[in-house]
Design a protein that fits this description.
mainly alpha; 9 helices; 3 strands; 301 residues; single chain; 3-stranded mixed β-sheet
Length: 301
Amino acid sequence: MASSKLPVYSALVSDLAIAVSKFIAAAVTGSSAMISEGIHSVIDSINQILLLIGIRSSKKKPDENRPFGYGKELYFWSFVVSLLIFSLGGGVSFYEGIVRLYHPVNLENASWNYIVLAIGFAFTIFSVIITLKAFNKQRGDTPFWEAIKQSKDPSTFIVLLQDVGDLLGLIVAFLGVYFGHLFNNSHSDGIASIVIGLILMAISGVLVRESRSLLMGETAGKKTLRDIVKLTEADPSVIKVKRHFSMYMAPEEIVLQLITVFKDGLTTSQIAEAIERIQKNIKRKYPRFKQIFIEPGLVKK
């Protein structure tokens, strides 16, 4: 979890610096695409702060009110961030573009736009490198989009997709400003703003889907669960595992329940010892399983 903070902090610093430069350029040139990009960077900055709140809150220790811990705080705030990207980032940019199509403004001092876009591109590339390095470390040999689906750490893939959206938005903003001056067409700036809004909405859709899935509760991997079943059934006191239930509470915290059939003739003390032994064996091999509940089951006759 601690490693998740570095990409978020790097993105926060980059977004704040970029937002200031974009709004300065927008004020000087009157570019709606630059206003949209400035809003985009402000929303991104707010999102990084919310993700940091989620990471910090998720580390709180279990108490009477939350006996399973506060791990899902990270998933909740990630879901909120995903919605903000759509409603504020995408929605405002789209609206700003529509307004500029109906009320076009001639752009001035184009060099300001190009300077700021270059600065924004440099900062965003810096953030992408840091975030992509962290994400690649997590995913290993897993294909990129499959890793996004499988990832249980939204603080990393949200920042990564935000950065991708930033890069695409900067390219679109550049094209809007460039073609606006090239053809002396004030409408291209508004069109660029609309396209930026659509890009943000598309990225938000992916993030909402993944964040919702984590918030609702995702199970551990099938391969891991099969191995845990084998590990449990290898215990001399166990006949078989009838059913298993698991759920991610945080990127490094999983709750597991095993309905286990024990051999006949075991005393209560022997079953208790077997349960403790199995729990230790599972946690030794899979430390992510923080809470393990083993319930004795009966074989149907």
